[in-house]
UniProtKB/TrEMBL annotation:
This protein's name: Cytosol aminopeptidase domain-containing protein
Keywords: Aminopeptidase, Hydrolase, Protease
GO molecular function: manganese ion binding; metalloaminopeptidase activity
Organism of provenance: Homalodisca liturata
PANTHER family reported in the protein's UniProt record: CYTOSOL AMINOPEPTIDASE, LEUCINE AMINOPEPTIDASE-RELATED
Ranges where the Cytosol aminopeptidase domain occurs: 103-160
A GO cellular component annotation in the UniProt record: cytoplasm
Family: Belongs to the peptidase M17 family.
Length: 161
């Protein structure tokens, strides 16, 4: 008995439909409901699925929310919680990249301090940005001391083994 409530899902082994509720077109509430619905979709979509979003004025919001909702910190667990999905959203590559960057920041923040030393942080950042046209400059301890980067040094001292 479908009611069309936000996040209500309907799945038939090939297509997943997610309700966004009854709201006015072009409203901020509609955008919020679409983001909530996309998060519900991530929970419901089977592992190793290809995910395609219908083209709409709100597809970018849905893609972004979907990628954010699919994040799971499973780095320290034997059983991996992160779903392996193929996201087919070429029109919304920017939204995907922004959400992936936010999830990467979440990963860095979720890591225990003793495992996120300055060296590890640098390695993770280089790996994440390997395909980007970004130049990374890493400073050693002596350089940071000479520039009085004391806050960074004290945090590094607390996380270094």
């Amino acid at each position: 008995h479908a009611r069309g409530d936000v996040g209500e899902t309907f799945y038939n082994d090939a297509v997943l439909l997610v309700a966004v509720g009854e709201v006015l077109e072009n409203s901020e509430l509609l955008r919020m409901n679409i983001k909530k619905a996309a998060a519900c979709a991530c929970k419901r979509v089977p592992d190793e699925s290809e995910v395609v979003f219908a083209d709409s004025p709100y597809a970018e919001d849905a893609v972004y929310a979907f990628v954010i909702a699919c994040y799971r910190f499973d780095f320290l667990t034997a059983k991996k919680l992160q779903k392996r999905l193929r996201l087919n959203a070429p029109k919304h590559a920017t939204a995907v990249r922004i959400a992936e960057a936010q999830n990467f920041a979440r990963f860095l923040g979720d890591m225990p301090a003793n495992m996120m030393t300055p060296t590890h942080f640098t390695e993770y950042a280089k790996e994440f940005l390997r395909d980007e046209s970004v130049e990374i400059e890493v400073f050693d301890r002596e350089y940071m001391k000479s520039k009085e980067m004391n806050l960074v040094l004290s945090v590094a001292q607390g996380s270094a083994p």
